[in-house]
Structure prediction request, 577 residues.
Amino acid sequence: MVAEGLRALAEGEPLCSRANGPHTGWLPGDFHHHYVVHQNDADLARGIVWAAALTAGPAAVPYLDALALRTGGPGREVIEDLKLAGATINALAEVDDPAALEALWLLRSRIRQRALRKQLGTALVTAAARQGITAGQLVERSVPAHGLAPDGSLERTLGGYRARLAIEDALTVRLTFTGPDGRTSRTAPAPVKDGFPGELAELKALAKSVRGTLSGERARVEGLMSAGREWPYDEWRRHYRDHPVTGVLVRGLIWEFQGADGAWRAAAPAAEPSGAPRRVRLWHPVRATVDEVGTWRARILAEGLRQPFKQAFREIYLLTAAEEETGVYSNRFAAHIVHYRCLYALFKERGWQADFLGRYDGGYDGRARAEFGDGEWRACFHHEPAEEDDRDYVPRYAATDQVRFERRDGRRWREVRLAEVPPLVFSEAMRDVDLFVGVTSIAADPDWTDRGADRHAAYWRTATFGELTTSAQVRRDALERILPRLKIAGRCTLDGRFLIVRGDLRTYRIHLGSANILMEPDDSYLCVVPARRPGNGKVFLPFEDDRLSLILSKAFLLAADTKITDRTILTQIERGV
Prediction:
């Protein structure tokens, strides 16, 4: 009876407000919506959830998982019910079965609601304590393998065809079909569609699940860059290197291994460590010398290795003398003018929580927050509306301000001096802030000069061709190594903060920070609006960097400026010819 009740909550037809009335008394009767339970039956529904978890055990897990997503996940068919979703999450934490842990792990990557994410964290801590391990250990041990072989693949025979699902790299999960003639296709052939519709649907659903796990693991492993965690070698090998999903990412990264002598030695991606290593940690350039970083960058490029995220070419942010003097805050990224909606979207994409700016009480004090170092540290990035405009409820532009740090103190956060923040935490947090400013600053907007007089024009002129930020300096180092391999190498040189490109009509200076262009000899501005997805796709890059791809695509365009057919670009060039 209890199991049937849970199944009905998770999969039954939702109730309609027109036929059954609103789910709560305070909603107007004309607001049409669907819901799982009426508020008068909420306690009963939560009781069914708990009873099913206690009596059905592992058999209840699929329905608890589905109910949590149905009431608290994205794209719901019913109105949100946070109390029921929260009860379901807590019930999953009480089911002593690996399937429950796997469900909690997957929910972490799919549910974005702040309160539920906090509840998921608490549930994982509870489940971990029951097993005598940390929440971090529980998460890494709960990553689903999806039935994949150690190399991240799975094969099924469907009649005369062989279906293969494989993780090809850190971003790609591919489903292919090979026929009796040996030909391989990315689309299911008619005999498979017609003869095995159920099996085909299962494979497509599995591919979707694997993509979700791969994406979640990529974000989680990159988050370890600020943690400074260490693993016993055998534990790391079992849960990281040899895992069908996580291993695809791990084998593309540089790791450090500690031998019997206590020394740490880095090993190339996918290479076996020498000797008998005892412990393992993720390599971070902030702990390496300048020469070591340069050696790894050269090797990554020489071997054509594309890392799952930027590691060898990762930016490093060290405490400056000015920050030591200010003590508890950094002004390194203050006083920039940014596109606010883009900034807010980027906060969400990078996992930062932020107050939304607007014309309401408290809407003029923006504070974005994110946790680092396994949740023991928190960075706070302050920002505010850049101007007051009564026509807009949400500001078009924001002005950036201080970055501050806090340390967890029980259930509270305590502000600390910058000098107390571990270098890994400080560097990773400031890297995010640099990204926020670099991507959303109006200095990176090539159309800005076409907007006429503007109160922010002076900032645009100063910032768009100004000194390079740390991320732009890493971009310059990458270009210095990539340029000799390009067909246009003879037309390109690096000069300070610019890539100089010699065309047949003019010579161009592309700023390595904003990617904006000045034309010699008069330093006139050339507006080239990028395509939706910049880059020509022909140049190997060892990491994802849309700005670097954009700079290279502009360099290829301008090196052959006599072949440009776009009149909006040609008119600007020909003015000074």
